[in-house]
Amino acid sequence: MFKKKLFKTLHSNTARKKEEYQVTLSKNLNETVDSIRKVIGESTDVIQRDFTINHYIRASLFYIDGLSGIDHIEQNIIKPLTDSSNQILRGQPIERVVNEVVSVSNISIVDNFDDAILPVMSGDSLLVIDGYEKLITLDTRQMDKRSIQEPQSEIVVRGPRDGFIELLQSNIMLIRRRIKDPNLVVQQGKIGRRSKTDFALLYMKGIAPNELIEEVRFRISCIDLDGVLESGTVEQLIEENVFSPFPQLGNTERPDKAAGALMNGQVLIAIDGSPYVLIAPVVLEQLFKSPEDYYERWFIGTLIRSLRAIAAIIALLLPGVYIAVVSFHQGMIPTTLALSIAGTREGVPFPAFIEAILMEFTIELLREAGVRLPRPVGQTIGIVGGLVIGDAAVRAGIVSPVMVIVVALTAIASFALPAYSISISIRILRFSMMIAASILGLYGMILFYIAINIHLVGLRSFGSYYTAPIAPYDFPSWLDLIWRAPTSILRKRSVEPETQDNTRQSDV
Questions:
Q1: What letter would DSSP give residue 92?
Q2: What are the record's GO terms for cellular component (predicted)?
Q3: 451 and 303 within one domain
Q4: Residue 435 lies in domain
Q5: H/E/C letters for each residue in 425-445?
Q6: Which residues pair with 200 in a beta bridge?
Q7: Is the bond preceding residue 376 a cis peptide, omega within 30 degrees?
Q8: Nearest Cα to 384, choosing from 395, 369, 402?
Q9: First CA to last CA across the chain, in angstroms?
Q10: pLDDT for 12
Q11: Using an 8 Å Cβ cutoff, are 199 and 189 in contact?
């Protein structure tokens, strides 16, 4: 059963009033043009072209410079309409004139400005003809786009090197190139009261559960916001638990990962202007997987996943364990190691907790600085800065060498996780785990770990259990958990979401 407790209160927003523009259409060209210019005339990039159709019908064409193709307008609209050899214009209905003379793929005739303004703001041209009390929109959109390149946030080891870009239609094309099935459904719409951002909902008919599709549609329809400029805004507005540190939707720049999610019964949300496609629902174990796990042989995939699981444990627990054993449980450390740690901490003026906080905070600063700076400079800052500051801190007696080793291992482990969203979640929880260790030692860490598990068990992503297939228990799905079974054995889809067709491959 899907929970709609928060979203039900927003259902009234789905019936939003349509914004109306005070434009009066008239058979007199001057009156209609003056009315239109009162709405969009203040913008200097709105171009108005006045011309005469076949030397006896006055007309005006409006388009936005930069969004519309000027050469396309000149060759396929203005030149055919002004050509005196087109005798078909004389005495013919204007609809036939436009459809037979103008060489444009998509032409619409509307009887009010409200239906015409959105296409014009998207790059279409608006044609106004004297003596004709309707408006004509012509598809003249021409968008500059970034070339398809390897995704920057998800480095590919083995697999296709193409990645999503900021143009919605190109992203849909990249998915359709991989799934040539008529059951791939693409439903497009607009979101944002003022931005009117294009978005697309993608799912596999016959695989994705109908309840999931309707729930995603419902949550998107509840969004009532001025502008949606990136998919992260949509993610925050449709997730179920806004106070959870764990991501409840996946995101990817990789078309192969998005196509795999579709065939797993999940739903994609693509937003125009963003190279990140959202995946709904997502469960915890999916955040630790990468498409390369299935491109390599099964024992290589199993080894890589095991390393990721160990890295997650190190990234979450290692600084807290160091604080707990040094501050409260020195008896648990072997005598030789305890003497070594005590010797390195001699002269350090801070307790282990303050020491760890200082170093972790420094590493986070270096990490953030490396991300914001240009790539060559950022890599240098991350490596050299860490070495210089760590060595200087040890020489100054501010921190111990063991603490530097612990922080370095923790940072490396957090980089081993394939999804940035789960990596940042573990980084946040690591500081809370350190605080718990400084208060109650290992007992505090155990209590906080239990609290995390209680939260995870109760967390849902579009109705899917976040800790599946561990809780609820589903042993067949364990074949694709940490141990990645051979591909010939993986005949069923994941337990979440509960798909209409659970068979991935036949038993033959």
A1: S
A2: plasma membrane
A3: yes
A4: 294-458
A5: HHHHHHHHHHHHHHHHCHHHH
A6: 188, 270
A7: no
A8: 369
A9: 35
A10: 37
A11: yes
